[in-house]
Design a protein that fits this description.
alpha/beta, TIM Barrel, 3 domains, binds zinc ion
């Protein structure tokens, strides 16, 4: 693959978020068509690019790997039932994420079942379903059993690579860990064509050793390489430097998707994730509302809106996300986990677009751009002031419920609407809490708590 034309196509497709490369497609690219944008788009598409920009030239597209149902659900008190997880997964499809990490199947038979249900029932928008596995045969088998029915299954294998983890968690040395990566990634790749490998605690690992680990994982069949800041320890400049170091030194790294995964222990998860994108990461692992263990994971809505608001700075790097679904998704996750969103939370907090100070209100009335860098409508706040009463139609009820995180089918909407009208005849205005009660009491109560 030393041909420069093929290499540059590969790079373009990689920047565009391509998942895998078909070597015959790359060789076909040499036959004189490389300069034609149209055929490039087709080739990138054929090579598996998740999105090809419509504007006539390829842009960088970041793959959004949502781990709300795995890393997010691991946070204290965030446990969801299988039915609730399926609801979230279907909403994530509407949001248009690229991958849903549905859980950790080896954790318990219940977890395996939930991931399997999600893999079987989640369809549309080309979404991939990932299952997490430690680097062991039994974990990988469980993950495969859970995700094999998905349209695009992914096995996500991880092994810690910092000396502190190797010594205290596994009591193995660096060479044994390398051997384990080789054997387990190869084993997983024999089951599934898309394999992500994560070096847990990568940011506290020796950088040269990390290069050897990733080189081994790629040679053994990994298609995505993830560099987690598991303990929320790094800072933007350092994380960016690590990505550049890896890109310059790991053989074969240009053939895989490079991924960032950050935690917010020092409040830098979003900044670190954006720094990784600047340094070539083309997948980011994120959660809704920044849900996650301890101080949480990187918040999807923050990264996506930062890229969207500052194309001048990030260089036209985009995502496939339908940002108008953010509010509904945020409210649904908050409601199902019982974990509230802080009012001043960026993007989705109740006050994120509220301007109360007089000087700000004055400016806003003259021109919203004085204090607003993005519109509330772009996140889904469009009908916030919609008052619900007996003159509201079924369509209006549906729209408001969607903003509150409920997508009802026709029958459910019919039931909810008749209850709504009955209540609206008794009182003038119906609050959001009452709307939610109408919907939730009309549904079956989940079996488990
Ligand atoms: Zn994590």
């Amino acid at each position: 693959m030393a041909d420069p034309a093929a290499m540059s196509l590969k790079q373009l497709a990689n920047d565009a978020g391509a998942y895998e490369f078909d070597k015959s497609t790359l060789y076909a690219a040499r036959s004189g068509k490389l300069k034609e944008v149209k055929s490039l788009m087709q080739l990138a598409n054929d090579a598996g690019a998740s999105t090809v920009a419509q504007s006539g030239k390829l842009k960088g597209v970041i793959r959004i790997f949502d781990t709300t149902l795995r890393d997010g659900e691991q946070s204290p008190g965030a446990t969801m039932t299988t039915e609730e997880k399926i609801q979230v997964a279907h909403q994530l499809v509407r949001l248009n994420v690229d991958t849903i990490e549905a859980g950790f199947p080896a954790a318990s038979p219940g977890d395996l079942l939930a991931v399997r249900e999600i893999a079987r029932t989640t369809r549309g928008n080309d979404v991939a379903i990932a299952g997490l596995a430690r680097a062991s045969v039994s974990d990988i088998d469980a993950a495969w059993e859970a995700v094999c029915d998905a349209e695009r299954p992914v096995i996500h294998v991880f092994l810690a690579t910092s000396d502190i983890h190797l010594k205290h968690k596994f009591n193995i040395d660096r060479e044994e860990a390398l051997q384990r990566v080789k054997n387990m990634v190869r084993y997983a790749r024999n089951l599934c064509s898309t394999i992500e490998f994560s070096a847990e605690d990568a940011t506290r690992s020796d950088w040269d050793y990390l290069c050897r680990i990733f080189e081994t994982a790629i040679a053994s069949g990994a298609t995505t390489i993830n560099v987690p800041d598991t303990v929320g320890y790094t800072s933007p400049q350092e994380y960016e430097a690590l990505f550049n170091y890896l890109r310059n030194r790991v053989p074969g790294i240009e053939d895989v998707v490079l991924s960032a995964h950050c935690h917010n222990d020092l409040g830098m998860a979003t900044a670190n994730t954006l720094a990784a994108i600047k340094a070539g990461a083309r997948q980011v692992e994120v959660t809704i509302n920044g849900l996650g263990e301890r101080a949480g994971n990187t918040a999807m809505e923050e990264v996506v809106m930062a890229l969207r608001t500052r194309p001048d700075y990030f260089g036209n790097i985009t995502t496939r996300i339908d940002t108008q679904e953010f509010l509904a998704t945020s409210r649904m996750v908050s409601r199902l986990t019982g974990i509230p969103v802080q009012p001043n939370k960026a993007i989705v907090g109740e006050n994120a677009f509220a301007h109360e100070a007089e000087i700000q209100q004055e400016g806003m009335l003259k021109n919203p751009l004085t204090y607003e860098i993005m519109t509330p409508q772009s996140i889904g706040w469009s009908n916030r002031k919609l008052v619900m009463g007996k003159h509201s139609g079924r369509h209006g009820l549906d729209a408001r419920l969607r903003q509150l995180g409920h997508k009802l089918d026709a029958d459910q909407l019919k039931v909810a609407y008749s209850r709504f009208i009955a209540l609206a005849n008794e009182k003038k205005h119906i609050t959001d809490a009452e709307l939610l009660y109408i919907v939730e009491s009309g549904k079956e109560t989940p079996a488990a708590v």
